Fold this sequence. Notes:
Number of helices: 3
Distance between the termini: 28 Å
Amino acid sequence: xxxxxxxxxxxxxxxxxxxxxxxxxxxxxxxxxxxxxxxxxxxxxxxxxxxxxxxxxxxxxxxxxxxxxxxxxxxxxxxxxxxx
Length: 84
């Protein structure tokens, strides 16, 4: 939850930088998915945090694939909140 709150804070601070804001929100949402995936009623992922973490990383790989498809490069996030 601390990671989610931190990423949301950075997303809030980068509202004017649309690509950075979108990525912070996406990564924050992905950080919460580990708990949801661990609750799936599948034998290989049920209550196994390492498997759930690896499955949630697929969503981050989809973000990288989208960047490569749309802009032909991987978009980096700013290291901290940008102040206007």
